[in-house]
Design a protein that fits this description.
single chain, alpha/beta, 5 helices, binds [cytidine-5'-phosphate] glycerylphosphoric acid ester
Length: 133
């Protein structure tokens, strides 16, 4: 019985409970969870500027027990190649992306998980600013 491989993507900046709960639930769908981590350059394309560098965000993700591997996400278009390269069985994203990746269902299962309310990297960033003020 081959391992069921789960694939997800994200910036995972200022790592918080919403990320933990997404990764935990994604991992529970199979045997291995692999994360495509947005590079700093790709974040610019996404209109995001992460507080933590790619290197730090990768090290943090690799420390998470639910995560088996991390690779760079550099473009919007690489997902099909990634699914085929790692033989992903399931593609998972939070439901703020619901419907956006349904085209991938020709390659693997596509699952959208509910977002954790009242937390985001921007909330964390802003609360740090207020605390520092
Ligand atoms: N997330 C969540 N609950 C939150 C915040 C985030 O479940 N309160 C989920 C998001 O839905 C996403 C994952 O955690 O599935 C990572 O969130 P981000 O780093 O914000 O990911 P994003 O910038 O949306 O990148 O190609 C896809 C993109 O790289 C997705």
């Amino acid at each position: 019985m081959s391992e069921r491989v789960i694939l997800t993507y994200g910036t995972f900046d200022l790592f918080h409970i919403g990320h933990v709960r997404l990764l935990e639930r994604a991992r529970a769908l199979g045997d291995r969870l692999v994360v495509g981590l947005s590079t700093d350059e790709f974040n610019e394309a996404k209109g995001k500027k992460a507080t933590y560098s790619y290197q730090d965000r990768e090290e943090i993700l690799r420390s998470v027990r639910f995560v088996s591997d991390v690779f760079p996400e550099r473009t919007w278009e690489q997902k099909v190649q990634d699914i085929q390269r790692i033989a992903a069985d399931v593609f998972v994203m939070g439901d703020d992306w619901a419907g956006k990746f349904d085209d991938l269902s020709q390659y693997c299962d596509v699952v959208y998980l509910s977002r954790t309310p009242d937390i985001s990297s921007s909330i964390v960033r802003n609360s740090l600013r207020i605390a520092a003020a």
